[in-house]
Amino acid sequence: MKFYGTELSSRLMLGTAQYDSPAILADAVKAAQAGVVTVSLRRESAGAQAGQAFWSLIQSLDVPVLPNTAGCHGVREAVTTAQMARDVFDTNWIKLEVIGQGDLLQPDVFGLVEATRILTEDGFQVFPYTTEDLVVAERLLRAGAEVLMPWGAPIGSGRGLNNLFGLRALRGHFPDVPMVVDAGIGKPSHATAAFELGFDAVLINTAVAKAGDPAQMAKAFRLACEAGLAGYAADPMEERDMAVPSTPTLGLARGLGGETL
Amino acid sequence: MQITVNDELKEVHARTLGAILDELGYGKTRVATALNGFFVPATQRSLKTVDEGAVLEILAPMQGG
């Protein structure tokens, strides 16, 4: 699987926020064998070393980084944040978030399309955090995105894949576009379900960071991703409404219940 | 002159963005800058003049999801 020409070593992308310590984060990234880690930018006062220490840790993990524009609520703010992220992280990749609604952290899809166009023209390779809406997806692709990141459910909710029909339709409508299910995945089974729908990768953060044992959960997600990917590749059977015996009925013994023949 | 740095008023003497970062103690730390809401690349900081009352944002790498 390639994103903008870059081959990923793993389909599991891992967020780096909310871990109790840098060591726990590092253990989780290693246990996940993450193909990408997401990072961000925040204010830091002179003399404070948290940001520099974090960057040193990420570099030591030797995993490609995907900076985000988390917290941005407008096009200009997101574009400026993306430009600043490129300067710091030295990559054209940007996970573009333009948030339009605070309670659900729902993407402002109108602003998202506009920001995607501006950033693409500026040489960025945009990973837009979007909904499963087909028309929005079409507009994002037209604006220059070559990867889409539809949500499973609201960020941090852990609800899994809220709209299976919508996600299946999105996957089916754009079969050749690399797609990452981002946000809302709470359990390994949710990640498996995303791969079983044919999605190419998942991005997990809270579900690992807030697990009782983040490294163990990271490993569980790695295995769940592998299972879902392998299951999808093996072409699952069609669902049926009625039961069909799996044991052959031909030659079935009769009269063993003692009934009179 | 007085400028606002990450929402805090600061008194600085330097007149270019690069020199102001040095004066404030950022040195060679890995940061990104925006002046009055506009991104200023690291490569242009030494040439970018800063006026009284300017608003400067200085951002560093941070955990993200």
UniProtKB/TrEMBL annotation, chain A:
The answer to whether UniProt assigns keyword Transferase to this entry is yes
Q: In which pathway does it act?
A: Cofactor biosynthesis; thiamine diphosphate biosynthesis
Q: Which UniProt keywords apply?
A: Schiff base, Thiamine biosynthesis, Transferase
Task: Identify the InterPro entries for this entry.
Answer: Aldolase_TIM, Thiazole_synthase_ThiG, ThiG
Domain of life of the native organism: Bacteria
SUPFAM superfamilies of this UniProt entry? ThiG-like
Q: Which reaction does it catalyse?
A: [ThiS sulfur-carrier protein]-C-terminal-Gly-aminoethanethioate + 2-iminoacetate + 1-deoxy-D-xylulose 5-phosphate = [ThiS sulfur-carrier protein]-C-terminal Gly-Gly + 2-[(2R,5Z)-2-carboxy-4-methylthiazol-5(2H)-ylidene]ethyl phosphate + 2 H2O + H(+)
Q: Which Gene3D superfamilies match?
A: Aldolase class I
Say yes or no: keyword Hydrolase present. no
Q: Which residues form the Thiazole synthase ThiG domain?
A: 3-248
**Name of the protein in its database record:** thiazole synthase
What's the source species for this entry?
Answer: Gluconobacter thailandicus NBRC 3257
